[in-house]
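A quick word before the example. In earlier lectures we treated sequence and structure as two separate objects. From today on, think of them as two lines of the same record. Here is 5-formyltetrahydrofolate cyclo-ligase written that way.
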Amino acid sequence: MAVPSPMFPDKMSARIEGLRLRRDCAAALDADARAVEAAALADHVVPRLGNGATIAAYHPLKSEIDPGAILDRLTPGQRAAFPWFADREAEMIWRSGPPTEPGPWGMGQPGADAPAVDPDIVLVPIVLADRAGTRIGHGKGHYDRALARLRARRAVATIGIGWACQLVPGPLPADSWDVRLDAVATPEGWFPCA
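And the structure line, produced from the sequence above:
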């Protein structure tokens, strides 16, 4: 059972508000303004990728901030990976990019023949996040389960990314199985999670 927060009584109310905020924020930006915001996000994230060899990103949904500007700045020794699903019931894994085929939800994902990889750093899309690293996603638990499996095998850094409106003072409601973020980045800054 989720621990409630003073801001939101439960995850569903947090998710509904976060999706509204994300949708409104994205709708207020034209293509040029979105590109400026994505470049500002990359300015905060890229210097912190360090020696991470495999950086997992995602193919953005309509109102999500696009991590493409981050991926465009990867060094020659780094490679991009993306979530991959065999079908809607399958566990999420990461495969070496680019996202060339439609996945079960219509998002781009690498082909089934692309190598499966364990990323060093995962750029995690957020619906909402707080500065303690609690993340509200779309509610299916794909990232939490995949990150828990990955962390059972090796160390991995998690960076929640989104529009500035998606980072809230918190605390957000959380369940015991929620995987906390190491940091959150928005076009306005970099926020290590305590």
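Notice the following. The CA atoms of residues 101 and 111 lie 6 Å apart. We will return to this example when we discuss secondary structure assignment.
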